[in-house]
Amino acid sequence: MQYYYITVTYSDFLVIxxxxxxxxxxxxxxxxxxxxxxxxxMTFTTAAASEMRDRIGTVVGKAIAKELAISTFHSxxxxxxxxxxxxxxxxxxxxxxxxxxxxxxxxxxxxxxxGEEKKEIEIEACEELNGCDIxxxxxxxxxxxxxxxxxxxxxxKTPEDLKKMGQRNGAVILEKYNDILRSCNALDYHDFxxxxxxxxxxxREVRKECQDTWKAIVVDEFQDTSSMQYFLLRIxxxxxxxxIVGDExxxxxxxxxxx
Length: 259
Hints:
Blueprint: H1 2-7, E1 14-16, H2 19-31, E2 39-43, H3 46-60, H4 62-67, E3 69-72, H5 73-83, E4 95-97, H6 99-112, H7 115-129, H8 134-154, H9 159-164, H10 168-183, E5 186-188, H11 191-202, H12 204-213, E6 216-219, H13 227-236, E7 242-245, H14 251-258
Parallel strand pairs: 1-7, 2-3, 2-6, 4-5, 6-7
Helix pairs in contact: 2-3, 5-11, 6-8, 6-10, 7-8, 8-10, 11-12, 11-13
Protein name: DNA helicase II / ATP-dependent DNA helicase PcrA
Keywords: ATP-binding, Helicase, Hydrolase, Nucleotide-binding
Pfam family, one: UvrD-helicase
């Protein structure tokens, strides 16, 4: 059965069950004449990507293996964002904000909040600390708001989405936070996927470039993909030349969702 999974033609949608078979699948694509530069393999860890390239290299040679695009989701998206940074309002040398910089951006977003939202946030922060030192309370409250922003970005929510959901304060904070990162020529880790989805969704030329380049896509550990990673794959793999590795118990679900 595993042999069948490896050798079906690349034009078919395919689900395979073992990561080791993923290497065989790439080798089959190469044997069928697919140019290595047109194959994209997505993994969740750099270690898995490195191991996969090494194993393929032992069969076809390091030079060919080097041409393959074997990458984690975030590394792939980071490269896509840098290649089209101007469309995101950034330069190609944009900064990547870590936790500390994100926290400071949240504090600044809280400070810049105006009107009723500012009053509500300040009152809430003071109540949590049982005091009225606004600066200290907002700094302490920033941890909660950073968690909120991360969750919103992970699920692909925009300030407009939050407003529609009745989360007015959250919408204001997220909007201010995004504005601060834009003014600082920065993205955070969670922006990579969202910004890539935006590039592929909003800019036809970027979408066409990617779809013309990645003629065959192989995805590891598909059951671990987030909703935004799934949207990304749906756009990239609109040609249905895709192979996914997933948990055997969820194979039918994957096939239903992707086709």
